Amino acid sequence: MKSPEHTVDRRLLTSCIIGFFCFFGSYMRLPIVPLLATSLGADAVQVGMINGVFMLTACCLSIPSGLVSDRFGRRLPLLGGLLLLAGSSFVLYWSSSLPQLALIYLLFGVGLSTFSPALMAYVGDVTPPEFRGQAFGWYTMAMYCGMTLGPAAGGFVANSLGLRPVFPLAGGLILAMFFVVLFFLPTSAAARRSSVSHHAVLESLKSLMGNRQLLACLVAVFGCCLGYGTFVTFMPLYMLSLGMNTVHVGLVFAAGALVNALSRLPSGHLCDRFKDRSILVVSGLAVFAIAVASFGLCHSAFSFIVAAAVMGGGMGVAFTVICALIADAVPQEKRGLAVGCYNTCIYAGMMLSSAGMGPVIRAEGFRVAFVSNGVVAVLALGLFRWIYQHRSVSD
Known about the structure:
Distance between the termini: 42 Å
CATH class: Mainly Alpha
Structural class: mainly alpha
Strand content: under 5%
Largest sheet: none
Oligomer: single chain
């Protein structure tokens, strides 16, 4: 008979493999779609709106997806989400207009909002509290390793073969993960019961919003993702406007994601040993804010790579600890819903920056946009600390 520790290790390892390849495939196309859009005649505002459609969809559906995973188990949204992610990659190959890109990115948003909360909740389900920081360190490190290599691979493929061949390659990798989930991912305990009834949805949300530890984490995530959304959406256009190419863009994305990934595991170990984990969140957010603002001062590929690496380190520390804090803050039967709220804040922040920064860039330029997002991250840091300290006193 297999020991419980062996079973947990197997489930965590399988989750890490799925997360790596899914985000590798998704992030292969991340720096390519804005370039494809501009080749079809889009300007910065239209690129922002296309990304905004994806973010809006993911934002609106993450909470319902979390509820589905609480009620019917993690496998159903995992399998459905992977099919949608793979399908959206394949059809991008044949897209020929901006409305088509927007529609396909809407499908991408549905897939990611279905898949991501379920897998993150699954990791929380199968790991004990005393190991949770390290477990999320391993999982998010695997996820961000995929985010590291994906943009670089997408940039090199696009530079060698053109923009469109990136999409079927990405879709094939994601589709392979569908079969890994289907045949190799064991069912978690949460998947064998119905824990959230329809009439209890609003009550569940109200109770979660009264949880100050969770609320502080959501505020931090939202503020951070405003800056990250500007980076993801507009960095390719910013660098091209300065005379750089797709390889440079891929390297900048890769540098940020690589340091993000490498910082996850040590951050998880620290998280399990710190009494006041909020110190780690505040430190990570401060580093992130400085890095995002510094993009406005960059003039060369090397300076962009350094700033992106610093940004990735800040995110890696802050978000690893936030994941563990959220998993600890709520009972297992509401964990999918809480993770759905977390993902909603991610996509809401990225959506608002994608849609809102386009007009700012058109009027004032890229530099003003990045400095503004650095200031917003500092404000989010202060609000997180205030809410979290209030929670410590009241609880």
